[in-house]
Amino acid sequence: MRKIIGAMFALTLAMTGVSQTASATPVGLSGPWASTPTPANPGTFDPLHIGTTVVGLSVALGENVDYIGRLSDGAVVFNPLQAGLAGASLSGTGLTGKSGTWTFVSGADVYQIVAVEIDAGNFFGIGLGDIYLTNPIANSGNWDTSDFGTARFHPNLNYLDFYGVKIGSADVPEPMSLMLVGGGLAGLGFTRRKKRA
Prior knowledge:
The protein is of the alpha+beta class and 197 residues long. It has one domain (2-180). It has 3 helices and 9 strands. The chain has helices spanning 2-24, 47-61, 175-196; strands at 29-38, 65-72, 75-78, 89-92, 99-105, 109-123, 126-134, 140-144, 157-169. The strands form 2 sheets. The protein has a 6-stranded antiparallel β-sheet with strand order 1-7-6-9-2-3, covered by helices on one side. The longest helix is centred in the first third of the chain and has 23 residues, at 2-24. The N and C termini lie far apart (110 Å).
């Protein structure tokens, strides 16, 4: 009898977990690829956690992955070690709730977001982070905290962390190229003026 009750309990638990995970995976993301405890404070970066995630993603995807930055309610903090993020923007909706959207626009360097970490609330002082892979790769999508526990414990968003792959640089003309074009235009103007005279 104990074995039957244990088997039924295990089956119920498994079915509950599958249905929650399947229904909660945000559109445009796959996973979670990993679930880890994280700092509960949205303004606190954990270099060890971020570094481990960067290395893990780089190995898993076979590409050099960079940490982009963090989006939380009313705040965007970009990775200060990535100068190519100058001019970039991160925005989102529902940042104090249980679901919403996110959008990333590249700056000086062009990045594709390859992973989004959704950190949901804090349970006994511990943040709970699920890392999802963008699928297909896109610079906008949805987030959802339904993967975090049961309906009784369904926390609000704490923050979103973004990881990306650099795919190029924005085309900024070099000063020498601008001088050559300007000189050429000036020469054309001078030649036309001379012909008229």
